[in-house]
Amino acid sequence: MEIRKVTENKKQYIDLLLLADEQEDMIDKYLNRGEMFVLDDCGIKAECVITKEAEGVYELKNIAVRADFQRNGYSNRLIEFLFSYYPDCKTMLVGTGDSPNILRFYHKCGFTESHRIKKIFTDNYNHPIFENGKQLVDMIYLKWERKAQERGRDAINQATITQKS
User: Fold this and answer.
1) Other CB atoms closer than 10 Å to residue 74's CB: what's the count?
2) What distance in Å separates the CA atoms of residue 113 and residue 67, rounded to the nearest whole number?
3) pLDDT, tens digit, for every residue of 111-121?
């Protein structure tokens, strides 16, 4: 299994991107300014896009796993990778719909609820968005905060990764 950064032709993964964000013009708002990674495990299985919002603050804008490979830990691997790839990350944000399964996943990854943006799905998308039969209206933001001791450990791990390269 390999996770690699995509620097060109990010739209070649549009089918995966659309699994997490159903409207292409919404993806266009963050794709070029974000950093994209794909997980290759005998073929591309998953992708994610992350943006730097402020010093030490990153936002996971898109994360998706091919439907036939979901529930195999690929999203978890991508999130763990991001935590180590960005040792300066003190806070990672992610916005998602009010879907119990997705919220449970992020909670298991160490995220806690931060705030909501009301009516983002109904006001900004050109069609209703449904998850498990429920229409999404508000975006729920979750955050993950790195503890000071984790920042030191991850800096050491990043130095080790860099030396091996």
Assistant:
1) 22
2) 26
3) 999 999 999 89
